[in-house]
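Progress report, Aim 2. The chain analyzed during this reporting quarter is listed below.
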Amino acid sequence: MSNSTEFSENILDTFRITSTGVFLKPYHAQRTFEAYQHLQKGISYSQIVMIYDAVESELLSKFSKDQIVRIVFKCDFSYSFQMSDFEPLPEPIALHIRSDVRQTSGVGKQNYKWESRPFWDELLKHTRNNTFDVISVNEKNHLVETSRFNIYAYDAKEDLIFTPPLSSGCINGVYRRHAFSSGYFDCSMGRKPLIERDLHLNEIKKFQLFVANSVRGVLSAALVSKT
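Predicted structure tokens for the chain:
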């Protein structure tokens, strides 16, 4: 079964607010700015930063503990956000591969987060009870991402960390941007060079898997099953 990717015009961002502010705020602001450019909306990067600064100031004024913030930006540049408690996740993150529904590869809007996610709504309907998240596969049999994380694969032979290129159709995640700014990925295997590389469905078992995003940081992962 194939999938035709659809996008809403509401931009989604999710971040972690700590006692020092929005974690990796410049990368969040940059990605939101880029998403607005895909919608051909006339807003400047400095205006986006002002929005994040205002939200950060409001949240810090009543801060008591780390929170996860889900913020939706609308076409008219208004926004709304919801908060939830930050709770650690048990590792390794149990993953299930779904290859019966395919994600669309390519570079463009699919590299950004949108409020409406029909592809993931469909994929997550059949998440198995012993798994936490699902890895998607594109029409080229390449791994793309999970519903919450970018994926990273440690190759012990090469002593490198690989992650799918944007051409796979994956989100250009905030933590991904942060890691590529240094060219290294810090994980339980140490500090390793980070390389973009297509990850074929058939080679997944030879890698040590990790997932990462700006809310959770880097987490170890394990493949539980495949459909």
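Residues 93-226 form a domain with the D-amino Acid Aminotransferase; Chain A, domain 2 fold (CATH 3.20.10.10). The mean pLDDT is 93. These observations will guide the mutagenesis work planned for the next reporting period.
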